[in-house]
Amino acid sequence: RIKYVFRADLVADRSIDVRQVSGDFKANEGRWELQPAEDGSTTLLLYQAYIDPPGYIPNWLARSTFRREMPQMLTDLRKGCEAEQTSRAEANADPR
User: Does the pLDDT of residue 8 top 80, yes or no?
Assistant: First the structure.
């Protein structure tokens, strides 16, 4: 098991910067950047990560871990974004 604590800095509707503040990694940081399509129908998500593990990890193992975990991270992100979008729409529709 590897442990870490990270800080996420959010710029609403634009980006999320993540960096490790303590833990086992030598370095662990990343950035999620949201770029709306010109027609407003979709959003492009750019993701960058830099990870320096505490010891040797073969490239094949690191890649397989990302392949396994990335789909769940993207699913969770989509659910969060859709929930926020629904919440904003309901707040704007509230006649109070």
Answer: yes
The closest alpha carbon to 51, from 2, 14, 11, belongs to: 2
Examine the pLDDT at 70 and tell me if it is beyond 90.
no
Residue 80 burial (10 A CB sphere; 0-12, 13-18, 19+) = exposed
Pairing between β-strand 4-11 and β-strand 43-52 as defined by DSSP bridges:
unpaired
In the numeric block, the tokens 């094949």 are attached to: 60
Please give the Cα distance from 60 to 57 (Å, whole number). Answer: 8
- Between CA 19 and CA 28 the distance in angstroms is 6
